Amino acid sequence: RFQAVGDDLHVKNGLLIKTGCVVMPESLRNQTLEVAHEGHPSSAKLKSILRARVWWPGMAKKAEDWAESCATCVTNGRPEKPTPMERIAIPSAVWDTVALDFNGPYLKFGGIYILL
pTM here? Predict the structure, then answer.
């Protein structure tokens, strides 16, 4: 199955390595995709995340399919451009200005959001 890339393969510390990336066994590929897509990156970003660490035949197509079929990504969509950061004026007195930040979802903790 790996004959086409045989020259690029070697074993290091018990792991099969292809050009610096761990060759992911089929039994761990879905779990790998789930973890890599936890922050809901686009399919291009997901492929980039995976390519930096792991490899398996057909990985790019599988990553595209995974991101495009993610229910959260499909429901929420992707903004065209991120909202630019704005400068806030320096407050003139204590409690003159209050800032809040909303962060999440944290899937490891049941999809909760945090208000900071």
Answer: 0.60
Cis link prior to 105 (omega < 30° from 0)? yes
CB neighbour list of residue 19: distance below 8 Å, 6 or more residues apart: 8, 55
Q: What is the pLDDT along the chain (116 residues), one digit of tens a residue?
A: 555 555 678 888 888 888 889 999 999 999 999 999 998 898 999 999 999 999 999 999 999 999 999 988 888 876 556 678 788 788 888 888 887 787 877 777 787 888 87
Alpha-carbon distance of 49 to 38, in angstroms, equals: 11
Which one, of 27, 1, 5, lies nearest residue 18 by Cα?
5
Q: Say how many domains are in the chain.
A: 1
CATH of the domain at 36: 1.10.340.70
